[in-house]
Inverse folding.
């Protein structure tokens, strides 16, 4: 919860990847709040009130996953909405405002996105933004498993990372400007 809150404020792409990881962790723990408390919440420092708040956050997320029927796979709607918002911003930057920096970053990632799309079974409806997020999440999982990753894959992931980092920065700017209005 503390990490999610900070990531949500600072970088929406990192937040989405973090939430996907949390969803998978909760699935691995069979959506059992007692297991989560014992293996995750107990690791956090702070006082009992903070640990209770963290436990409640995980418990609420488990309940949300159950209600939305994503206990086996998929993502909670609030996270899917953020992916959709990033996708909308992606199209806006490419087509409406002609953001040349973003256009350049996207073009550097475009061939890698095509290659990744060909190698995965993700449906054609999956946006380039979601595709890049999936690729980075898979890359993260490989790194956590200490699997060998070839240099071509690493270079492709860097193009996705740069594209999403800029997109997240622009997303944050839009959010901050809306708050000021």
């Amino acid at each position: 919860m503390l990490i999610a809150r900070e990531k949500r404020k600072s970088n929406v792409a990192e937040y989405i990847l973090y939430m996907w990881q949390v969803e998978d962790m909760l699935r691995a723990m069979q959506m059992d709040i007692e297991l989560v408390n014992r293996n995750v919440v107990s690791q956090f420092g702070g006082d009992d009130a903070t640990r209770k708040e963290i436990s409640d956050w995980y418990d609420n997320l488990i309940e949300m996953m159950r209600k939305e029927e994503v206990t086996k796979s998929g993502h909670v709607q609030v996270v899917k909405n953020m992916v959709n918002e990033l996708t909308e911003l992606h199209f806006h930057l490419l087509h409406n405002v002609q953001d040349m920096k973003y256009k350049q970053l996207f073009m550097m990632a475009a061939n890698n996105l095509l290659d990744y799309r060909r190698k995965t079974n993700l449906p054609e409806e999956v946006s380039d933004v979601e595709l890049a997020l999936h690729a980075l999440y898979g890359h993260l999982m490989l790194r956590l498993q200490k699997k060998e990753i070839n240099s071509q894959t690493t270079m492709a992931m860097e193009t996705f990372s740069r594209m999403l980092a800029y997109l997240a920065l622009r997303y944050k700017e839009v959010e901050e400007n809306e708050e000021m209005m």
Remarks:
- Helices lie at 2-10, 12-28, 33-39, 48-67, 77-96, 100-119, 128-144, 151-180.
- Residues 2-67 form one domain.
- The first helix runs from residue 2 to 10.
- The CA atoms of residues 12 and 168 lie 6 Å apart.
